[in-house]
Each structure stands twice: as C-alpha cells, then as structure tokens.
Write a structure and sequence with these properties.
Layout lengths: L2 E5 L5 H17 L13 H10 L2 E6 L4 E9 L20 E8 L6 H12 L2 E6 L4 H9 L3 E7 L5 E8 L1
Parallel strand pairs: 4-5
Antiparallel strand pairs: 1-2, 2-3, 3-4, 5-7, 6-7
C-alpha cells in the first residue's frame, strides 16, 4: 500500500469525522459494541488533537484520505500504572490512539503503526478487549501484550508495546 501521512488540517475535519463514524459502525458490526460509544471521538477532541499537532491523516496514492489517527510523543497519564504485567521499558515512547479507516482500502492501521516507528522506535498502544481486528494487527506487527491500563473514565484497555 502506497500512502502519505500528514498532519490533519481543519479542512479535513468533515471527512475525518465521517471516517470515525464508519469506524464506529465497523466496530459495532464486528462485535465491539462498547468501544467508541456516545459519539467518541468527538469533533472537539479531534480539534484539540489538530491544535496540538497530534492528528494525522493517511492518504492513498491518489491523495484521497483513507484513514486517521493520533500520535503523541511523551508520557500518557493513563499508562503510568499498568496491571497484571509491565511495560517493556521506561524509555521515551510514542502512543498511537484513535486509528480509524474509511474501509476503502486495507492496511490503513498497519500503515499508521509503521509510520509511527519512523518517528520513534518505542511505541505503546492500548485497545478494547473486544477490538479483535486491532489486536490482530498488533500481533502481526510483533507488539507484546504488556498488561491492562485504565482510562481516565475507568474503562479497561489491553496495553501493548514494541521497541525496535
């Protein structure tokens, strides 16, 4: 898959929000009915990601936006405590959040993760226990399951890490 990854702009917002709606529907249809509920991620959250320089879009070789994700370098407060395991290391890391695909092309999640490793060689990710597609991608890309973390709202997530 040939892709270009760039910062999300405000002009991308309508399509980005459409992609998140598509991803929520896909999750629901694949048995993951408890993740990304109540309109998550909200446009306000994505706007905050854009303002912070954390939101990225994935474009195919025709320049069409086919995915979106957030990538943040630095400490994630929800990763401070990990239960039933431990992180691979305590080195500086990048965190990938909110990967979503338009469903037009396969390989968007993998493209996001591989690009993230061009930014930093130590990556952490969390996902819902019912998000089997994301767990499969992480397994395929040799991420290690590290334990359980809890989001600020108390929701449980499986935590993964890979360091090159």
């Amino acid at each position: 898959m040939t892709t270009n990854i760039r910062l999300t702009s405000y002009s991308d917002l309508p399509l980005v929000m459409e992609i998140y709606a598509t991803a929520r529907e896909f999750m629901h249809n694949t048995g993951n009915i408890n993740q990304w509920v109540n309109g998550y991620p909200s446009q306000k959250l994505i706007e905050a990601d854009i303002d912070a320089g954390h939101s990225f879009v994935v474009e195919n070789n025709n320049g069409k936006i086919i995915g979106v994700f957030s990538f943040i370098i630095g400490e994630d407060p929800t990763y401070t405590k990990i239960y039933d395991g431990e992180w691979l290391n305590a080195d500086e890391y990048g965190t990938i959040h909110r990967i979503a695909s338009s469903g037009i092309e396969k390989g968007v999640g993998e493209a996001c993760i591989k690009w993230s490793f061009t930014q930093l060689s130590n990556i952490r990710v969390d996902t819902h226990r019912d998000n089997k597609p994301m767990q499969n991608i992480l397994s395929k890309l040799d991420f290690k399951y590290c334990g359980i973390i809890y989001l600020l709202d108390g929701a449980e997530r499986f935590a993964y890490q890979k360091a090159l």
